[in-house]
Write a structure and sequence with these properties.
The protein contains four helices and five strands; from the N terminus they run H-E-H-E-E-H-E-H-E. By secondary structure, the chain is of the alpha/beta class.
């Protein structure tokens, strides 16, 4: 296990994205990546590179954004999903990884946005 909390949530997603890239998958993908600061985001450069090879759109969310930040700020919340989810959001699959409190917020927010619970797949990470 990595000692970096940022890697707990993104690591399983990275595995999936790398596999999709390797297969040349052309499905549209959207990643909501929430973290404290841009500089400390795990896999940030690799994710930016993946956007050039697969149909991946990333919504960056920083809780401690720099003054010139133009992305989303604060914590991942329903309003951010409402702004960015595609029109066919109920037909998509959702994979959610991270700490338990974030998972709970995301599951509720997606459900309130009309995403069927059967399409939300969560993997919880919590320290013992």
């Amino acid at each position: 296990m990595s000692s970096s909390p940022g890697a707990w949530g993104i690591a399983p997603i990275m595995s999936m994205l790398r596999t999709l890239d390797h297969r040349g998958d052309s499905r549209p993908l959207m990643l909501f990546y929430a973290y404290h600061t841009r500089e400390r985001m795990t896999f940030r450069e690799e994710l930016e590179s993946l956007t050039e090879r697969i149909d991946l759109h990333i919504v960056w969310v920083l809780s401690e954004p720099p003054a010139d930040w133009e992305g989303e700020s604060g914590f991942l919340r329903e309003e951010i999903f409402a702004l960015h989810l595609p029109a066919d959001k109920g037909a998509r699959e959702y994979f959610v990884c991270g700490p338990t409190p974030m998972i709970e917020v995301v599951e509720r927010a997606l459900s309130r946005q009309g995403v069927p619970l059967a399409r939300i797949h969560s993997e919880l990470f919590d320290l013992v």
